[in-house]
Amino acid sequence: MGTPSNLVRKQYLISQRNIQKLEALASTQGTSAAEIVRQAIDAYDPHGAGDLDAPELMELVHQTLEDAITTTRRANRKVSKVLKVLDEAPT
């Protein structure tokens, strides 16, 4: 964490959902919400994949696609169940 002399106060608008998540993370980690925000900013690297070599990048893509397929299949099963219930409902 920075010392008070090198910290700058800024104000940002965030959603109520983000506030709840931030407070929960801070509570779980036993730190302040401000520290969680600082850690998130330090960890954020939108170009991080550029530092990966080809095999690492392919593994990342593979895992991301597997996760997306699993999530999509799960969602499709839920939608199918809801549609079945709706089809069986009296009109």
Task: Describe the structure concisely.
With 91 residues, this protein is mostly helical. Helices cover 66% and strands 0% of the residues.
Structural features, described:
- With about 90 residues, the protein is an all-alpha fold.
- The chain has 2 domains: about 1-45, Arc Repressor Mutant (Orthogonal Bundle); about 45-90.
- Helices cover about 65% and strands about 0% of the residues.
- The chain is built from 3 helices and no strands.
- The protein has helices at about 15-30, 35-45, 55-90.
- Helix 1 (about 15-30) packs across helix 2 (about 35-45).
- The longest helix has about 35 residues, at about 55-90.
- The radius of gyration is 21 Å and the shape is flat.
Layout of helices and strands:
Layout: H1 16-29, H2 33-43, H3 54-88
Helix pairs in contact: 1-2
Please tag this protein with its features.
66% helix, mainly alpha, Arc Repressor Mutant, 3 helices, 0% strand, 2 domains, 91 residues
